[in-house]
User: What shape does this take?
Amino acid sequence: MDPPAPPPPDLPLVAGRSCGECNVCCVALTIRDPELQKPQGIRCRNALPDNSCAIYATRPQQCRTFFCGWRHLKWVREPLRPDRSGVLVRLHGEVTRETGAVRLGVVFTLLHAAALRAEGLAESVAAAVAADVPVFLNIPGPPGYTSAQVKINEVLAEPVRVKDKQAVLGILRQLRRLGLKGAKQKIRLEAE
Ligand code: SF4
Ligand code: SF4
Assistant: This one.
């Protein structure tokens, strides 16, 4: 899973939320930095057993600037801290075809099957769809392989409109199954 376009530099963090012992982004992200290259799904070699970073003071730029959607977006529900929920929300810069302006969207990555049972998943996805934010579902391939990703605004529009939580979750489940079946390619890093 490559990092999407970075969020605006002035995007604030949600007060009262901290990473704690979470280090999902140190595993789930593909990092392409001159100092560190690693594919998604592989735990960073600098991650210590307690999930802290062995090179924190000198960690690469990508690590310094990345915060997930749970840290940035208040409407991503509180129970969705990535290590507790298996749901990693990332900000996604989508370039508008007409104007070239970057519009902020979100990517919901389901890290494992139990993520579908995470409290607040359907509500958070529905909030984004209802607000007409571009929303993507991302299903990671095996460690080191590419993910499947699809935009879900259209397919969820009706169940969100009628507030049918079970239908929202059913569609996410179906899309996850399809994503797992899709062809995956080994991620190639610059150093290879
Ligand atoms: S995934 Fe989010 S909450 Fe977890 S360590 Fe990264 S930024 Fe913090
Ligand atoms: S260098 Fe540190 S912060 Fe960056 S991915 Fe590795 S463990 Fe995480």
